[in-house]
Amino acid sequence: MSDDKLLSLELKISILLRWGVMLAGAFMLIGWASMLDFTQNPLAAFQDYKGESLHDSLQNALTNHQWGLLIAYVGLVLLISLPLLRVLMTAVLFVKQKEKVLATIAFIVFATLILSFSLGIEL
User: Fold this and answer.
1) What is the pLDDT of residue 46?
2) Which DSSP helix (H) or strand (E) runs through 10?
3) For residue 39, which phi and psi values (nearest 5 degrees)?
């Protein structure tokens, strides 16, 4: 593969990541801003912390129509998925360059990231 095509692919990856971070940030900002409630004491909700699983949090948000929280979650999922996408696209780039060792390492890193995210989620 020619150097121009490789540089073009690397540029596309960087542009995708840049726009992905901005989009994720916009989702989180919109979600968090829509959750602001100026009519209540903001410290009243922080008196008792009750941890809940991701499943329970999503269930409560859907049941209570907390769209701001759901939009913020979409932004967080997008932000977390960007490094995964970066590693996967880099692995594909290495395959196109016929760099077998680097492609194998990138796919191992991708699998490790998927496994670590899967083990860290408490459903």
Assistant:
1) 65
2) helix 3-35
3) -90, -15
Please give the distance of CA 106 from its chain centroid, rounded to a whole number. 19
SS (H, E, C) 82-118: HHHHHHHHHHHHHHHCCCHHHHHHHHHHHHHHHHHHH
pLDDT at 41 over 80: no
Q: Which residue has the tokens 């009750």?
A: 50
Contact (Cβ atoms closer than 8 angstroms) between residue 79 and residue 60: no
Cα distances (angstroms) measured from residue 47 to each of 34, 53, 63? 22, 19, 23
**30/24 Cα distance (integer angstroms):** 10
d(CA 93, CA 9): 8
DSSP 48: S
Tell me which amino acid residue 108 is.
I
